[in-house]
């Protein structure tokens, strides 16, 4: 196959937070510390031999048959090392068969991005076009001055239930029918006054008495995006503590709002560095999982659980939970531990799902049963699990179904009153499990009013209504 290295630049307008996958097919192995989107006064550049090297490293048999295009997202670190992070494959050959991940990662060093004489870690997008036995490459340029409201609907990886068999329908709030400042949303929480708070990719929304109040970088300490000072940085997670403080993760930092005053917690006044999730325990301690271990704030002092002072297997923490027995459960990308006062339990040799599935979230019901969502690159080890109060494990997945076989769980919520488990399944939508009747329902944009395959954080208000943040607006449960 011949190559035509035409690095043509075309504008691709997209609002994206730092450290995200741009395309639906995702890969492991890249170091996902903070990186920026096509940044730099001097952009990261591939080597002159890039196209030739790709052709050399791709599967030779596939190259004889391939046609179409592939969008690739490459992370280029400060040393110029490339790593394929995500792909949108619109060719006639599957990415795995094409050996694309290895082909990109084996290419020579790039010239890294540079801003103000500082080298930056950057995400670069290229379009590989295979046509008439030729490869041409176009660079995807991002025009941040032309950003508009963004949403993502997507095609579900798993077919949804028949519409006629769905129990519920949903009301959708978006920028077109409400004061929501941005459709792409990631956070949802209910506070002690039954007020709802939503985190979008352009601000925080307070929803009370059917009225939305918007908080942005213009009227709060929330930071703006690096590439657009008019845009508020993405709100990635939210929680409300027992004193009714609202907590939000945005960018590298955490923000607390007590109803009158905003407090910013960053690396200068706290151990927080790129927090992932928030958990509030029964004693009103606020816990944060991060790439630097677990941080705990008791309202006055900070403390840290990491590899220097505990048996935690890695500082790259996924989830943290404190149960009613005050046992601390921590999930990392390299394993899980349970801390019971001075005793630590490891699970790598156990005969439990915690041997190879890593805790991303937990919930305890009124009977003391523990519900887990577990992450693993081997999806047969991931999914929803129940540890009953008599210490028995149950895997929660429908029989003879693709559900949970290849998709990560973004969030889950156990509605004890209605005995329903709601699961936000990435690249699918929402999954409903009726515990009493052992019945599963799958809600997608194709069979329901759920507007996106990317449903993020779930919350239940004091009236028993389920709400969720999605990449195409906020949804509210209603009877069908």
Description:
The protein has 480 residues and is mostly beta strands. It has two domains: 2-146, no CATH class; 163-479, Methylamine Dehydrogenase, Chain H. It is 5% helix and 45% strand. The strands form ten sheets. Strands 1, 2, 3, 4, 5, 8 and 9 form a seven-stranded mixed beta sheet that branches. Strands 10-39-38-37 form a four-stranded antiparallel beta sheet, with no helix packed on it. It is globular and about 65 Å long.
Shape: globular
Give the proportion of residues in helices. Answer: under 10%
Strand content: over 45%
| End-to-end separation | 55 Å
CATH class of the largest domain, please? Mainly Beta
Biggest sheet statistics: 7 strands, mixed
Instruction: Say which CATH homologous superfamily of the largest domain is assigned.
Output: YVTN repeat-like/Quinoprotein amine dehydrogenase
Number of strands: 39
Mean pLDDT comes to: 90
Q: In CATH terms, what is the architecture of the largest domain?
A: 7 Propeller
Structural class comes to: mainly beta
**Count, helices:** 4
Topology:
Layout: E1 2-11, E2 25-26, E3 36-37, H1 50-57, H2 60-63, E4 68-76, E5 82-91, H3 95-98, H4 100-105, E6 113-115, E7 118-120, E8 122-131, E9 134-141, E10 168-173, E11 185-190, E12 196-200, E13 203-208, E14 211-215, E15 224-225, E16 228-232, E17 235-240, E18 246-250, E19 253-257, E20 262-265, E21 275-280, E22 286-290, E23 293-297, E24 302-305, E25 317-322, E26 328-332, E27 335-340, E28 343-346, E29 358-364, E30 370-375, E31 383-387, E32 393-396, E33 409-415, E34 420-425, E35 429-434, E36 439-443, E37 455-460, E38 466-470, E39 473-479
Parallel strand pairs: 1-9, 3-8
Antiparallel strand pairs: 2-5, 4-5, 4-8, 6-7, 8-9, 10-39, 11-12, 12-13, 13-14, 15-16, 17-18, 18-19, 19-20, 21-22, 22-23, 23-24, 25-26, 26-27, 27-28, 29-30, 30-31, 31-32, 33-34, 34-35, 35-36, 37-38, 38-39
Protein name: Two component regulator with propeller domain
Organism: Flavobacterium lacus
InterPro entries: WD40/YVTN_repeat-like_dom_sf
């Amino acid at each position: 196959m011949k190559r035509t290295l035409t690095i043509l630049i075309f504008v691709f307008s997209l609002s994206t937070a730092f450290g995200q996958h741009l395309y639906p097919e995702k890969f492991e192995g890249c170091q996902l510390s903070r990186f920026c989107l096509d940044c730099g006064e001097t952009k990261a550049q591939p080597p002159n031999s890039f196209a030739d090297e790709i052709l050399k490293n791709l599967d030779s048999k596939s190259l004889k048959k391939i046609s179409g295009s592939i969008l690739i997202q490459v992370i280029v670190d400060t040393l110029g090392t490339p790593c394929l992070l995500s792909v949108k494959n619109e060719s006639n050959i599957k990415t795995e068969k094409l050996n694309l991940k290895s082909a990109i990662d084996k290419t020579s060093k790039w010239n890294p991005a540079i801003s103000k004489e500082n080298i930056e870690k950057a995400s670069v997008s290229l379009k590989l076009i295979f046509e008439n036995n030729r490869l041409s490459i176009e660079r995807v340029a991002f025009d941040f001055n032309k950003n508009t409201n963004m949403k993502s609907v997507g095609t579900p990886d798993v077919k949804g239930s028949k519409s006629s068999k769905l129990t519920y329908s949903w009301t959708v709030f978006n920028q077109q029918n409400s004061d929501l400042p941005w459709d792409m949303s990631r956070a949802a929480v209910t506070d002690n006054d039954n007020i709802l708070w939503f985190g979008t990719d352009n601000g925080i929304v307070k929803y009370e008495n059917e009225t939305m109040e918007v908080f942005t970088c213009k009227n709060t300490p929330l930071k703006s995006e690096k590439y657009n000072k008019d845009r508020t940085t993405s709100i990635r997670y939210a929680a409300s503590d027992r004193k009714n403080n609202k907590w939000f993760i945005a960018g590298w930092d955490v923000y607390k709002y007590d109803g009158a005053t905003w407090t910013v917690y960053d690396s200068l006044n706290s151990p927080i560095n790129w927090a992932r999730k928030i958990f509030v325990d029964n004693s009103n301690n606020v816990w944060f999982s991060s790439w630097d271990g677990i941080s705990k704030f008791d309202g006055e002092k900070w403390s840290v659980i990491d590899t220097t002072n505990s048996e935690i297997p890695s500082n790259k923490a996924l989830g943290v939970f404190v149960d009613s027995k005050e046992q601390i459960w921590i999930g990392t990308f390299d394993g899980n531990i349970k801390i019971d006062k001075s005793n630590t339990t490891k699970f790598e040799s156990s005969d439990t799902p915690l041997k190879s599935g890593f805790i991303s979230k937990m919930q305890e019901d009124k009977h003391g049963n523990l519900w887990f969502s577990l992450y693993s690159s081997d999806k047969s080890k991931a999914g929803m699990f129940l540890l009953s109060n008599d210490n028995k494990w149950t895997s929660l997945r429908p029989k003879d179904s693709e559900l949970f076989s290849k998709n990560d769980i973004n969030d889950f919520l156990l509605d004890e009153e209605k005995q329903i488990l709601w699961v936000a399944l990435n690249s699918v939508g929402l999954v409903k499990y009726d515990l009493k009747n052992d019945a599963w329902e799958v809600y997608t944009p194709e069979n329901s009013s759920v507007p996106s395959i990317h449903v993020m954080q779930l919350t239940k208000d004091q009236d028993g209504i389920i709400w969720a943040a999605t990449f195409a607006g906020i949804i509210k449960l209603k009877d069908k």
